[in-house]
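Final paragraph of the annual report: two paired records, presented back to back.
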Amino acid sequence: MTRRQSLELKPIGIIHSPYKNTEQAPYQGHKSEDISRIEVFREFEEGLQDIEGFSHIIVIYWFHKSQGYHLLVKTPWDDSLHGLFATRSPHRPCPLGLTVVELVAREKNILKVRGLDAIDGTPVLDIKPYIPSIDEGSSIKVGWLKGKLGKEIS
């Protein structure tokens, strides 16, 4: 692969969300009780087998409304400039979103989830089970965010 080579991503589904635009979406979805639906395209439905055994899943999606980016950005938590890659800004050179959500129910190819902050119509690129022994690290440092979010981050 060369530096300038592009990648082709094919969505496996689409998000049906109560948020119709970025202004309606919460900064952090895990604080929301709203239910979103992830419609997994029928051709991938078989791949959902056994997913309902997990309480939480990781949803990887494409910020399809994101336009442009800056390498230095301000965040909702302070007025300082931070490097884009040290933030969770949706405005990125490759606008991937990643959120851990609660899996409320599965109905065939539809996953009902709580805690998703993506807007309606967002393409889903992948779904993975959240496995604490794999996904939680130890001795984690949170850099410039330390003390900014209260009890959420140590």
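The closing record of the year follows.
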Amino acid sequence: MRATPVLGRAIRRLALTTKQAGKDYYKGTGTGSMGRHTKWGTYILDVTKMRTYVVPDLRNFELSPFVDRNIEPKRDNFSHTEKGPVDGLELIKQWKAAGGIR
């Protein structure tokens, strides 16, 4: 079986993948460099190559965060165990109570 000529032309226009090319084809990630290496082994950052992100002014921002900032963190109590929070048997009991293997 052969691919139709129309399909063959469409395949030629697609980008080459690493699976289609030879063993020396390395595509990379397209990130580029942020500077250059010196002959002494250090790296010098180039400000013109660095990415800059435009952020809007957030001084009068009206939206609130998804998580309430006033929630107290939950403190676990391990006073009923022998070894405290590192007791493996207590962990297995909690796991079974939460629906682990019975």
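The chain has a mean pLDDT of 81. This concludes the annual technical report; the extension proposal builds directly on these records.
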